[in-house]
Amino acid sequence: MNEIKIHEVGMRDGLQVEQQIVPTETKIKWIDELLKTGIDIIQVGSFVHPVKVPTMADTDALFKHFTQPGNKPEKVILSGLVLNEKGLERGMACGVEMFCMGVSASDTHSKKNTGMSTLEALDRIIATAKTAMSAGKKVQVSVQSAFGCGFEGKIPEERVIGIIEKYLENGITMISLADTAGHAHPAQVERLITEIYKKSDDVNIAVHFHDTYGLGIANCYTAYILGVKYFESAFAGLGGCPFTAKASGNVCTEDLVNMFNRMDLRNDIDLQKILEVSKEAEKFFAREMPSKLLKVGTLK
Ligand code: MG
User: So what CATH class is 5-296?
Assistant: First the structure.
């Protein structure tokens, strides 16, 4: 029974911050390899304006390729990030299976990212989520900067809870807590997630940690112990955010899967296959990646 679900976000969260554009054929190769690892959900890209983030300009083309019959295993879900209604339209047109979207709990981060305050952005995102849900799509909403902000520092927990209550009131139960700047620590994760579970029995929490201060895996473990089943991570430990201060890579997929593998929770995911893609990324960007497993290999 695979209770734990891994959502690979490297192709989006990882590649969006890179200066060097990965050619579409290389992206197809990497996604193709990731599809064969046993990972549950793969985020293909973001429907952001191609001029604003040129590394994501081929997102539509990638979806068109992978939604062709035979180009992906049935059980793997392909997700795409949308920022607004326009993005949703593009995603609908090219076969996105799961739409991810969200708001930042930090007004400063929200304004830099979207030009809107948190509350303005929230209304727009809820409307977009409802449109996608009524079209029969899987939808996951997020709260970015849920554990702290690179610009504002501490984010009051009531602010995060307030956003989550709004999502829940609108019938949106798949909710991702994103630690965009990587400020979270395990006691904070425990406090916030415990509060959210008190609000709803139906809520399905996902976590998205960045490893800025080396606490990513500890935060994932804490979330797991509390009952969280959805984990977002990036192969090789790629990642960051172009619109936040001082954010480093996402939790590294192979390091996270290694933990769940050793805990006998996900023995079915092929670590070697993930490592092969991470090696290719390391070679492509010609720099050492944060992945621990890439350095030491898997335990025999
Ligand atoms: Mg992120």
Answer: alpha beta
156, with CB counted inside 10 A (0-12, 13-18, 19+), is: exposed
Q: What does the DSSP 8-state code read for residue 214?
A: S
What the block records as the tokens of 15 is 């590649």
Instruction: Please tell me the distance between residue 69's alpha carbon and the centre of ligand 1 in angstroms.
Output: 30
Stated pTM of the model: 0.96
For the segment 114-168, what is each residue's pLDDT rounded down to a tens digit? 899 999 999 999 999 999 999 999 999 999 999 999 899 999 999 999 999 999 9
- Asked if 82 contacts 122 with a C-beta cutoff of 8 angstroms, the reply is no
pLDDT for res 244: 55
**Ion ligand 1 residue ranges (Cβ < 5 Å):** 13
Taking the domains of the chain in order of start, what are their residue ranges?
A: 5-296
Q: What is the DSSP letter of 47?
A: E
Query: Which residues belong to the active site?
Result: 241
